[in-house]
Specification:
Length: 170
């Protein structure tokens, strides 16, 4: 009788462990997207960030919009180990494939006290896409995005400024 009782106890434990392992697919991870920058020779490089989206599967329906701290961010204020929380949200514990930043129109650069508008091709339409390839871990995970102003800002022959963002995961 004890063998039967132990067998049922073992079977119950095995089913419980199996059930918890299967439920792991439905767990979520709190993801925080943080922003930082490398040094650049200007007084300000201001980027108007409206939304942050994260893609965690290959299909187009896997984009999720995170709670975004909308605003104009001076990238040059985010140097030397300083970063800021840009967006966060709960995602399925999964593999992050891409991050998309949707930008507004209030982008500018300040050089020698003069402010110049900066245009960003398709920034407010399709957004800036960044390939990530990061597996989320734990209940909370952060992704630090380096928005490299030095490589991103370009002045045209007519004196206009364009932002062709160079984004990296750190």
């Amino acid at each position: 009788m004890k063998k039967v009782l132990y067998s049922f106890a073992f079977l119950g434990l095995f089913v419980s462990v199996l059930f918890m392992a299967c439920n792991k697919e439905n767990e979520s991870t709190r993801v925080k997207i943080r922003l930082t920058d490398n040094p650049y020779n200007a007084e300000e490089v201001n980027v108007d960030i409206r939304e942050v989206h994260v893609k965690f599967r290959d299909d187009e329906n896997s984009w999720l919009t995170l709670d975004t701290e909308q605003g104009v961010y001076n990238l040059l204020g985010l140097q030397n180990g300083i970063d800021t929380l840009l967006a966060e949200g709960d995602l399925p514990t999964n593999h992050v494939k891409e991050i998309r930043f949707v930008l507004g129109n209030d982008n500018s650069i300040m050089i020698d006290g003069n402010v110049y508008p900066m245009t960003i091709p398709s920034g407010s339409e399709s957004g800036l896409k960044l390939k990530v390839s990061k597996t989320l871990s734990g209940a909370v995970d952060s992704i630090l995005v380096d928005f490299d102003a030095a490589l991103s800002v370009h002045q045209t022959g007519t004196g206009d400024y364009h932002l062709k963002p160079v984004l990296k995961i750190k």
